[in-house]
Amino acid sequence: MSIYHSGIGMTSQRTRVRMIDRLRRQKIVDEVVLTAMNSVPRHIFVEEVLASRAYDDVALPINFGQTISSPFIVARMSELLRAGSNLGKILEIGTGCGYQTAILAQLAHEVYSIERIGPLLTRTRTRLRKLRLNNVRLKHADGLLGLPEVAPFDGIILTGATTHVPSTLLAQLAVGGRMVIPKGSQEQYLCVFERNAQGYVETILDEVRFVPILSGVIKD
Ligand code: SAH
Known about the structure:
By secondary structure, the protein is α/β, with parallel strands linked by helices. It has helices at 13-25, 31-39, 71-82, 99-107, 118-130, 167-171; strands at residues 60-61, 67-68, 87-93, 108-115, 136-140, 153-158, 173-184, 188-195, 200-208. 28% of the residues lie in helices and 27% in strands. The strands form 2 sheets. The chain has a 7-stranded mixed beta sheet with strand order 5-4-3-6-7-8-9.
């Protein structure tokens, strides 16, 4: 039986249900986010040797020095981005293995995701194609530039930390839109920027630990 369809052991639906129960205990309340995380098989986003740990509440390595965010962080950021409403067009910076992207695809009408490491994106493309997510567009580029040709976005999410909030990205947010971003270097906090008609409102939330957002691209 292929790992994609495995119904046994640590990759089963039962394991996913246990993850959802844990997320509820961790105070994730958005049922749309919980449903999305119950439906996406997280174990196919990590190397086969790590598949049995895929549903644990930890970040795991995904090659090229990057990590897949823990289930709690994915849930928390998705909940903050949604803020209780369905999303139209969203932009993700830092596709990585594509797990957060696959979750976002259930929460938004259209998802654009940018990754700077070419070979990492190539693998993720293949993986996401198997899940037949037809509302996701992936781009190999420096995400700090955003996607001006597609902007404005109802939501922007960065899956790596920055010390400076990129004004280019803030400018690509629609009025009424939200940007969720881990901010800082040694000490990092999850921040939400909401754009209103007057400007931006920043809310600083949980302390977190992310790999850094870097500029420039790495080719295949
Ligand atoms: N959500 C991803 C997180 C991966 S870690 C997952 O769960 O797999 C953060 C990712 O951001 C890495 O893949 C890294 O290469 C990417 N990244 C860092 N700086 C970037 C930039 N400027 N543009 C696009 N992607 C970037």
